[in-house]
Design brief:
Four copies of one chain form a homotetramer. With 147 residues, chain A is of the alpha+beta class. The first copy, chain A, has one domain (12-142): Thiol Ester Dehydrase, Chain A, CATH 3.10.129. Helix content of chain A is 21%, strand content 37%. The first copy, chain A, has helices at 12-22, 62-81, and strands spanning 33-39, 42-47, 54-55, 59-60, 88-96, 105-114, 118-127, 135-142. In chain A, the strands form two sheets. A six-stranded antiparallel β-sheet of chain A has the order 1-2-6-7-8-5. Chain A has a two-stranded antiparallel ribbon with strand order 3-4. In chain A, strand 3 and strand 4 form a beta hairpin. Chain A is globular and about 45 Å long. Strand 5 of chain A pairs antiparallel with strand 5 (88-96) of chain B.
Chain lengths: 147, 147, 147, 147
């Protein structure tokens, strides 16, 4: 993209603080989630590996990947439009590409559109240290009316 | 559909037993999951309400709905082709339609295609006792080569 | 659904007239499209078979099916909220299920949600006379602000 | 990606020749389609602007975009696994992001996975000369058994 990107609306530390208060069901000590990088509409999240995400065949479960991707999109929305606790996912589409390693999962989320009503983004999920994605997600968030 | 449907490959009790052994991460005492009905490629699953699925705004979380839909599709695949522990989701698309009630979630899953390589289905999710779905899912499972 | 459905906002004849004027690129003499049934949020469209939709393997092309599904959703939106020429598709997801016959295509579209901002529906596509769908679509339309 | 990419299985000129013979319904003189670049699993296609793709509001139609994305994925599959005339789309998901300009459409398609049975990719669509995509597609092709 040739245009300079705006600064993020909130930093990683600010978003972490807000989510710990507003969204403790997902983002709590022991959730294994770390917000590693926050640029405008472009964030990186790490999910620590836990054995209890495994399923037959020894891989991290699909729902674990969907949950991480959804969380990463939520953070990406915050990075672009500020804390919108009532933003809600309207659509999520995931393609599972490869068996994940028994390692941390990394989500790279990037918004493709930030409109008045909708934000649309994509998330690539990787096993830590690998080049090829284990899953790819596109997702739409509906944004509350902002004044 | 005018043609008579085949009998299911396995009963609800048989699938429950197999999953408790093969898939205890998802299907365990306390998971809140009950396989309520199993016809051929057409199943109904109940997920008991727990407060810890809530998120800002007081609704059941998106990942909880995705996990239930994925589980329901897995059971629907078993109902059509027998126990295929290594069947894997390749694609899942979810549209979130309404705020769920603070009630059990019901998943009605129905296969639209059972091929040699792929099974494709749809899942409607309801709050128990409501007529209008809270979410709708389509999903594809890749089937292992069967002899 | 147990509740009585409202009457459609427009009849098949009314929608046909409006589209012939407002949307002649898609709905013109020779498009092969007929609006066969219009209930509230629930419509049936027929696309006449033409040889030029074939592709390698002798089937009707994917884009022909996507175009028909998108058109059927557009008509379903009209049936629920009236003529909204500026309603736009924001998301469309299609699963191709079976090789279509060399026959007319039938689209059965049904809205699952009619909100203030978004309408979400599903479309099943059939070869005329067949029981099993050849494709299944879910789609979201963004609705203009209505007064 | 850190690994060197393989050479494409076929060049742009070779793919153009094959498609003109095998897929003349889509790729013919006057289709407006040009295969501009072919790397391994990574291609660029141009669709010349024609007024008859317009719809209410003066934009290029959704089906035109879906057709171009599907064609670009087909070419990307050829670039990776050679001419597979019988490769078929099993799933396509499109998010419409912005109103396209009255200009050529550019498709950048990139495979994320090339497996034995399935190829999965994403396509970004642009109005010629613009930085921001007008639509984003993910799609899965089922590959015939290869010897």
């Amino acid at each position: 993209m040739s245009k300079a990107k705006p600064a993020p609306a909130l930093s990683a530390a600010e978003i972490s603080e807000i989510l710990a208060v507003e969204f403790p069901q997902a983002f709590y000590d022991g959730s294994g989630l770390t917000i590693e990088r926050v640029d405008y509409g472009d964030v990186r999240i790490r999910k620590a590996f836990h054995e209890d995400h495994l399923r037959p065949g020894g891989t991290i479960s699909g729902p674990t990947m969907m949950e991480l991707a959804d969380f990463a999109m939520y953070v990406a929305v915050f990075s672009a439009v500020g804390a919108q606790a009532l933003a809600v996912t309207t659509n999520l589409n995931i393609n599972f590409l490869r068996k994940p390693a028994q390692a941390d999962l990394i989500a790279e989320a990037r918004l493709m559109k930030v409109g008045k009503r909708l934000a649309v983004g994509e998330v690539s999920l990787y096993s830590d240290g690998e080049d090829e994605p284990v899953a790819h997600v596109t997702s739409t968030y509906s944004l509350p009316v902002r004044s």
